[in-house]
Amino acid sequence: MKRTITITGLVLVVSYLGLCYPSFHVETYRDQFVKAGELRSPLSSIAVHVTRPNYLTLFGKTYRGVQGVQPFYLEVPALDSVLFVTGEDDQTFHLVNLKTRKHLGVGGLKTSFGGHIPYDDFVESASANQVVVATRYQDAKKSFFLNFRSGKVERIVYEKYENQKTNRSVYIDGKRVN
Fold it and tell me: What is the strand order of the sheet 74-76 is part of?
């Protein structure tokens, strides 16, 4: 009986801490534009296996659930911008111009991109209408053609390198077209 009361009390205290105390920012990275790090809560301090989401603050706006590792963004010099990804199941690609502070987004999809920023995820090319980002694998590459004006992923190209040839698959609206 005493053990049940103790366990119940512990569950109530942990629940109270997790629900009543907001997360706080633990800054792990800073440069002239960005502050970034982990969001921690009292519950995440007790439960070491709880995922600690990342945040990124740019021009006073904080984005939660940022993918990758520090610095959590990719530079897009051709557009004087930075690109970063938020979310897991419902991802958003963010493009923020460092001169004008204008924010553009492409969202509402789940991709494999963002978790390896800045190592295996990179910007392949950029123009006024389109940014192409890619993930490099040992024997493949997956490219995402992002149209920030329309707010959509125009296409995804998966290139698999086998036996000194490249097998290419193209997807539009989630459907393979070749």
Answer: 74-76, 81-86, 91-97, 103-109
24 DSSP β-pair partners: 40
pTM, whole model, 2 decimals?
0.80
Q: For residues 17 and 43, is the Cβ–Cβ distance under 8 A?
A: yes
Question: What span, in angstroms and rounded, lies between the C-alpha atoms of 162 and 159?
Answer: 10
H-only helix segments in 92-140? none
Alpha-carbon span 6 to 12, nearest angstrom: 10
Please list the ranges in the chain whose pLDDT falls under 70: 1-3, 9-25, 40-52, 108
163: left (phi over 0), alpha (psi -120 to 50) or beta: left
Q: What is the DSSP string of 11-42?
A: HHHHHHHHHHS--EEEEEEE-SSEEEEEEE-H
Amino acid at 68: G
Give tens-digit pLDDT for 2-47. Answer: 667 777 756 655 555 555 555 665 788 999 999 998 876 655 555 5
